[in-house]
Design goal:
Low-confidence stretches: none
Distance between the termini: 43 Å
Number of strands: 7
Oligomer: single chain
Number of helices: 3
Helix content: 40-55%
Structural class: alpha+beta
Order of helices and strands: EEEHEEEHHE
Radius of gyration: 27 Å
Length: about 160
């Protein structure tokens, strides 16, 4: 498909840029790096995000205030890895094997062996519940961080 120039146009749009200022001057990267790092609480006032890479610390930063002090913290935006679910699937396979063994005739096992298998099964079941809870917590934290990353972007002086 070809578009003729008589059908195309250029328009100028207004852009709003929010910048961080300290004592009337635009915040520099050096000053930004000096902001204390803290995790926000429910009373924190969220100011926005800053896209600035600090090696081994983060690439996207949440800026917020609490009790009149500015803070920053890195947003972790990688999706939770499938570790917990992979581990859970491995446990399910082991549990199925244990259930099969427990259904064998009692002459196959001594009573102490059966109790040991049941104890192992119950332990794996408790671990599975913990694994799924940690996975859900990880997903919930990712969703929170992702939503924070959609806030207004703040600019700081280079």
């Amino acid at each position: 498909m070809e578009i003729e120039t008589k059908n195309a146009s250029l328009d100028t749009l207004a852009v709003t840029i929010k910048t961080l200022h300290v004592s009337g001057k635009q915040m520099t990267l050096a000053v930004f790096r000096q902001l204390p790092i803290k995790y926000e609480n429910k009373d924190a006032e969220l100011w926005g995000i800053v896209r600035y890479s600090i090696k081994d610390s983060g690439d996207i930063w949440l800026v917020f205030s609490n009790n009149g002090i500015l803070y920053r913290r890195a947003l972790i935006l990688h999706k939770p890895e499938g570790y917990y679910l992979k581990k859970h699937r491995e446990n399910i396979k082991t549990q199925k094997e244990l259930i099969y063994k427990m259904q064998l005739p009692t002459s196959y096992y001594q009573p102490s062996h059966i109790q040991q298998e049941k104890d192992t099964f119950n332990k794996l079941l408790a671990e599975d519940i913990d694994i799924l809870k940690r996975h859900n917590d990880s997903v919930n934290e990712y969703n929170k961080e992702y939503n924070l990353s959609l806030m207004n972007q703040l600019f700081i002086a280079v």
